[in-house]
Amino acid sequence: RMAIDKFAIVSCRDAQSLRIERCWLTIRNAAHFPGVAFVRANAVGHSDALASGPAMDEQKPLDVRLEDCVIRGEATFLITTDQQPVRLFWKNGLLATPERLIQLRGVGTAVGSDLDRSPMQVDLQHLTAYVGQGLLLADGLSDGASPPAWLTCHDSIVIADSDAALIECVGTGYADHLDDLLVWQGDRNFYEGLRVFLLVRRGLDGPARQIDFQQWQELWTPPSRGHENLPRRGAVGWRNPVPPARPTDLHTPEDYTLAERDEQSPAHGGATDGRDVGLLPITLPTENLPRDNLQP
């Protein structure tokens, strides 16, 4: 039997690629058991308990590609370690979870600072993401490790709880070297609910440093390798806002439809391609189960 904290819809070990197109994936975890994931990626010979395994440069990257997908429920989308390089590409879709998009657990073996040596590379396009705890948690990463993630995010909407951070890093030596933590390349994104964009802690009980929206934009100005072009923070403007009591495993793309008038939602036509920011419903698959069958 599998322990609940090891559960995943897809578990990848020694895999090269995972492609998900025009799918709905739902996890109902009403008890909010920790460690549940839609996708779990482990290096060969590397357990979730972070036992020793092959060096990162011996591991082939896992390519995870999603297009026109709805992922919802009480689970982190991807849980992995810095010994298993992952390249995540998601074009168009909805992610609705009280957890995060990614949890990256470190063992401190990754070295270097080039993109091809980073254990996590992410490319998000036209994604609407309600991630209650934020996009990324990188924990256990030590001094000398490569950037925990290179993230490209454009034409997307990120919604989080007010006490969450967009990116949270836990490890040693990070608080004084923020520009070495990650590389963020953002274009025309909308952020709702977020007050803290980067939270850095030296361990669970150690001192913390918080970066707010203004500081976040300043962090990605030259000579930084990243950028944050034309971001907006604040209410997006929804046609029918999601009731707070509705569990995320019942969220649908219709819950994240923009308000009809442009002045009520500046996300209309605000993307780099001239289309709406966030998910594009016209290419998403329809829900294949009657709503009544999805009630808890």
Give a short summary of the structure:
The chain has 296 residues and is mainly β.
Structural summary, described in words:
A hairpin with a 6-residue loop joins strand 16 (196-201) and strand 17 (208-211). The strands form two sheets. Strands 2, 3, 5, 7, 9, 11, 12, 14, 15, 18 and 19 form an eleven-stranded parallel sheet that branches. An eight-stranded mixed sheet has the order 1-4-6-8-10-13-16-17. It contains one helix and 19 strands. The chain is mostly beta strands and 296 residues long. The protein has one helix at residues 213-219; strands spanning 8-13, 17-21, 24-27, 37-42, 62-73, 76-81, 86-97, 100-105, 120-131, 134-141, 149-154, 157-159, 165-171, 182-187, 190-192, 196-201, 208-211, 227-229, 232-233. The model is unreliable at 46-54, 109-113 and 290-296 (pLDDT under 50). It is globular, with a radius of gyration of 18 Å.
Q: pLDDT below 50 for ≥5 consecutive residues: which ranges?
A: 46-54, 109-113, 290-296
Mean pLDDT across all residues, rounded? Answer: 84
Helix count from the secondary structure assignment: 1
Which sheet architecture does the biggest sheet show?
11 strands, parallel
Shape: globular
What structural class results from the helix and strand content? mainly beta
End-to-end gap: 24 Å
Overall helicity = under 10%
Order of helices and strands: EEEEEEEEEEEEEEEEEHEE
**Computed Rg:** 18 Å
Number of strands: 19
Q: What proportion strand?
A: 35-45%
